[in-house]
Amino acid sequence: MSVVVVGSVALDSVKTPFGERANALGGSAVYFSYSASFFSDIKLVGVVGRDFPTPHLDLLRRRKINLDGLQVADGETFRWSGFYEYDLNEAKTLDTRLNVFEKFSPNLPDAYRNADCVFLANIDPDLQIRVLRQVRRPKLIAADTMNLWISTKKESLKALCREIDILVLNDGEARQLSGKASLIQAGRLIQSWGPKFVVVKKGEHGVLLFSKKNVFAAPAYPLEEVFDPTGAGDTFAGGFIGYLNKKGNRLDENTLHQALFYGTVMASFTVEKFSLERLLTVRPPDIKRRLTVLHRMSRPSTL
Amino acid sequence: MSVVVVGSVALDSVKTPFGERANALGGSAVYFSYSASFFSDIKLVGVVGRDFPTPHLDLLRRRKINLDGLQVADGETFRWSGFYEYDLNEAKTLDTRLNVFEKFSPNLPDAYRNADCVFLANIDPDLQIRVLRQVRRPKLIAADTMNLWISTKKESLKALCREIDILVLNDGEARQLSGKASLIQAGRLIQSWGPKFVVVKKGEHGVLLFSKKNVFAAPAYPLEEVFDPTGAGDTFAGGFIGYLNKKGNRLDENTLHQALFYGTVMASFTVEKFSLERLLTVRPPDIKRRLTVLHRMSRPSTL
After folding, report:
1. What is the number of domains present in chain B?
2. pLDDT beyond 90 at B20
């Protein structure tokens, strides 16, 4: 079982009410991979510049994440800088420098093309589709997206929707993409465009998963304080997809529901410190412990 | 087992994007009572004016709600008018006329004073305390409140907190009362002021319940459309407290958690039409059906 993920590998500069970091390891493919590596074998597709610090790569290799698909291009690594205000619900972007990402054309190593699961993290939907064309009959295809592509490449995104099993997006994006204020209507409508399942991430309010007929929910892990929400969504997706892959890409509702809880637990670590700082100290028993809390939190044990 | 509830009995004029009603039956004690009457015997304390339509009273009596504690005073019934915009999350008040409520002094009939459960719906906390002084050793005391009392009578509210088992309030009120942006911190802080449990209502995002050590969650019922949210919070409290009372006022975490689900189901009916229009057609099997959906929605059945 293995997951191919394509997405950004970035150097993030982030400021929150609790402190700041410059040029810290980040990017959707990085958060996803690190989180998913607790459940499955991960193969990463992306690009960095010649300036990318080697220790960051070591840190991914230590989790046995395969980096054969990570191109190193002339130029600088993708950089994002932004900040959060006290409510921490919305990242305000100060600057995005695509750098080597601008001319990125994903090209999968041969060993990647037989992966049974593909996660298309948030990048241009045309690139997401280009990656899909390079894999042979994966059993599970999931994708994430963002407001930028919803406003600039909606048709590509809808084309992508017809080819994937699961779309993961946040509540604001679900409302924007569907044009519906009701999240229940939004999830159902997007689901009708193709994905068998739609996952709507709601930050402190947890997640919803829409199947053809049903809706499933998981609350957020009850942290007293969120330190830095950067990467929470990608870390969630890593736990969610990694767990599904570990379970043989089963998409029955019980497995999917359990996967929501794993994703939620992984995201709860990421937001406790900057960058991957907290994830680096996570051990499997920590995951188990938080999973138990989340289960008890969600339904009376006598049912 | 019986619940004494004190709160408003009102004539509401409401406008939503879907229509409007003038002088419809409303008020916190009314929504609470009607909802709780599916689980327990209800005794209502409140006041109406001579203008209050008799059919409204018949409708409550048909649910065997005891109205001996409902005073009829000279003057007009309490009136609230307001509207909701498309997001339906916040009621905008156009006009509040206290009328007979202005001089209301709750006075409990003798038969009410031995009730084993008291719900102090949203009224002036000084009146809530006055009601408490008139009951003999109830096993369960719960209260609701609103932003008005948090800004004008915070000390009375904190005094009330020391005498109750459960405080029910919405997310905005919890943040306002605690001064904390994090709902987890807010719930824990308020809980430390006295109530054994704090319930935070989050509208479309469901509810959280805080005990001394744990947090419990229930998602909102997945309605495609919310028609009119007026009374949802009081209907929730009715199902929640009514169920606890039915279970002998047990406050173990499993019973409380189950009660969250019952409250959520009852509220899901109220928001489907104006006033009590939808609640009037609810039968016990409807409640059971939605409860099953909510259970399945909340946790994988294989756990």
Report:
1. 1
2. yes
A contact test, residue of B247, B256, B264, B299 with most A CBs within 10 A: B299
Say what angle helices B253-270 and B28-36 make with each other, to 10 degrees.
Answer: 120
Interatomic CA distance for residues A301 and B299, integer angstroms: 10
* Residue A255 located in a structural domain: yes
Interface of B with A in 106-165 (CB under 8 A): none
For B:192-221, CB contacts with A below 8 A are 202, 204-206, 208, 214-217, 219
Distance CA A15, CA B174 (A): 27
The 10s digit of each residue's pLDDT in B104-124 is 999 999 999 999 999 999 999
- Would A156 be classed as within a structural domain? yes
Contacts of B14 (CB under 8 A, 6+ apart): B20, B21, B24, B26, B81, B82, B83, B84, B228, B230, B274, B275
Report the CATH number at residue B54.
3.40.1190.20
Q: How many cross-chain Cβ pairs, A to B, lie less than 8 Å apart?
A: 96
Average confidence (pLDDT) over A124-130 = 95
Distance (Å) from the alpha carbon of A251 to chain B's nearest alpha carbon = 13
Write out the two tokens for A275: 């960058």
Report CB contact under 8 Å: A223, B297: no
* Test the A interface: residue of B192, B205, B290, B302 with most A CBs within 10 Å: B205
- The helix or strand, by DSSP H or E, that contains position A180, with its residue range, turns out to be none
Nearest chain A alpha carbon to B253: A300
Nearest to B50 by CA among B27, B71, B74, B67: B74
Nearest to A5 by CA among A26, A36, A38: A36
Domain that holds residue B211: 2-298
The predicted-structure confidence for B273-295, as pLDDT tens digits, reads as follows 999 999 999 999 999 999 999 99
CB contact under 8 A, B205 and A202: yes
Out of B202, B225, B299, the one facing A298 most closely (by C-beta) is: B299
Q: Is residue A303 in some structural domain?
A: no
The interface residues of chain B toward chain A in range 7-46, judged by CB-CB distance below 8 A, are none
B303 part of a folded domain: no
Angle at which helix B171-178 crosses helix B183-192, to 10 degrees, equals 60
